[in-house]
Design brief:
Length: 468
């Protein structure tokens, strides 16, 4: 069975898939006149700048096509933190380390390329999600690729397919796999038995998700800034403690990305292809741009516009890959002096070894703690993703809106919590492979819908008018 799954996985995540991701991103980059680059100061002021000025919760509320009435959504800052919870995860630590050992220092360069192109894809899908979102009979927002597939393209079957794939991902990649990573880390670092860790982890998660999107948003807005801030500070401490190696690390990144010195030996093409493959694929895995998940997570934001949430999605991809992934990569490259072949570690163990080289046991605890917190945040956000997908899928199969809400509120939480607990105990080779396949398949209907709806992806009026 594993052999067959590996063949399917190779087809889903083959080089042509990465070409499609990049092709769609380049198309929208040209259509939007390189907005992620030319408009950097504009979208930065309207995202991170608003965080620093304390105005992030303010919104214009104009032209978002939503109904008025009692608000059952969350604030803009909460929606941003919830979206970051889904994108910032174990991929920022273990994924980066794996990309570097498999593709060399140049993988970081191609992660940047992936992020730069993915930013405009994230902008497009999130903008369309907000434009087509609506409120159900209970007053809750329904938003995501399945909505703009149904209401924008008029292809309900595509939306049902996407919601099914998203539902499967939430019960695999978003729950079992993440829980397994967190519990395994706790067991290795703090000797917490897997059963005990699974029970505690699942119990805390149950307390959070039983409060719905409002409690998820409240937890996310407190957890993500604190966890990300601590990780950034300690990463900078390690990097600047060996500041003399920074130029060499950056040089190895560029030279390995194109490897001109290996051209004479005929190895350049192989090395470059590995750097591109692992850099771009790890970048997509980390920031999720193109999968459509950001469109779902931004859906509950109140008092906002499509352009506004689109720019927040761009910021999230930038923060996830260009900032957090780069910090992890620089820690590893500086501490190993870019000699990755000589290090007998990989994945999270490599990151922990590099941090502990400067911070001692505190460094190992930092990486382990970050893995656990980021995994928990990812699970929390994926619960909301899966719940939205479950409600839409059941409704789309003809059972009606009431049946969809009942399944999402009663049955799905039990399935999700069961998957989380099972993930803490089980071997997940098959689950990981299946989840990765579902994850990849999500991109195809989403990217297809984006291309057909490309005319509706526009730039913010303020940017077009040259306003600051």
């Amino acid at each position: 069975m594993m052999e067959r799954l590996e063949q399917i996985h190779g087809m889903v995540w083959g080089p042509w898939t990465l070409v499609i991701f990049l092709g769609v991103g380049i198309f929208f980059t040209l259509k939007c006149h390189f907005f992620q680059i030319r408009g950097f100061s504009y979208w930065w002021r309207n995202t991170a700048g608003r965080i620093l000025s304390g105005k992030v919760s303010e919104g214009t509320g104009e032209g978002n096509g939503t109904d008025s009435g009692k608000k059952k959504g969350i604030s803009q800052f909460q929606s941003v933190c919830t979206a970051l919870a889904a994108t910032v995860g174990t991929g920022n630590i273990a994924g980066v380390a794996t990309a570097l050992t498999a593709g060399g220092p140049g993988a970081l360069f191609w992660m940047w390329v992936s992020a730069l192109i993915g930013m405009i894809t994230a902008y497009s899908e999130t903008m369309l999600g907000i434009r087509y979102r609506y409120k159900d009979s209970d007053g809750h927002y329904v938003c995501g690729p399945f909505v703009y597939m149904e209401r924008g393209l008029g292809i309900k079957g595509m939306g049902i397919l996407y919601s099914f794939l998203c539902l499967m991902c939430s019960l695999g990649m978003g729950s079992m796999v993440q829980a397994n990573s967190a519990i395994s880390t706790m067991e290795y670092t703090w000797k917490v038995p897997a059963l005990t860790g699974g029970l505690v982890f699942t119990g805390i998660l149950m307390l959070v998700i039983c409060g719905g999107i409002n409690r998820i948003g409240n937890v996310a807005e407190k957890l993500m800034p604190a966890a990300s801030g601590i990780y950034i500070v300690f990463s900078l401490i390690v990097i600047f403690s060996c500041y003399d190696r920074i130029p060499g690390a950056l040089a190895s990144m560029v030279s390995s990305a194109f490897c001109p010195e290996a051209a004479a030996g005929g190895g350049a093409g192989y090395v470059v292809s590995r750097s591109i493959r692992y850099g771009i694929s790890r970048g997509v895995f980390s920031n999720e741009a193109g999968l459509g998940t950001l469109a779902v997570l931004h859906g509950p934001a109140e008092d906002t516009t499509p352009h506004e949430q689109g720019m927040w999605a761009m910021f999230e991809v930038f923060f996830d890959t260009v900032i957090l992934c780069t910090l992890t990569a620089l820690v590893i490259l500086c501490m190993t002096d870019s000699a990755l072949d000589a290090v007998p570690y990989e994945g999270a163990a490599l990151a922990a070894w590099c941090f502990s080289g400067r911070l001692g046991i505190a460094g190992e605890y930092l990486v382990s703690g970050s893995m656990v917190v980021f995994a928990f945040a990812t699970i929390m956000a994926w619960f909301y993703l899966g719940k939205q997908a479950a409600a839409y899928f059941i409704r789309g199969t003809g059972l009606g809106e009431q049946a969809g809400r009942w399944f999402a509120a009663r049955v799905y939480p039990l399935l999700f919590l069961g998957a989380v607990f099972l993930g803490s105990e089980a071997r997940l080779d098959v689950v990981w492979m299946l989840s990765d396949i579902w994850n990849g398949l999500m991109a195809f209907p989403n990217l297809t819908a984006l291309l057909f709806l490309y005319k509706e992806v526009t730039l913010p009026e303020g940017f077009r008018a040259g306003k600051t």
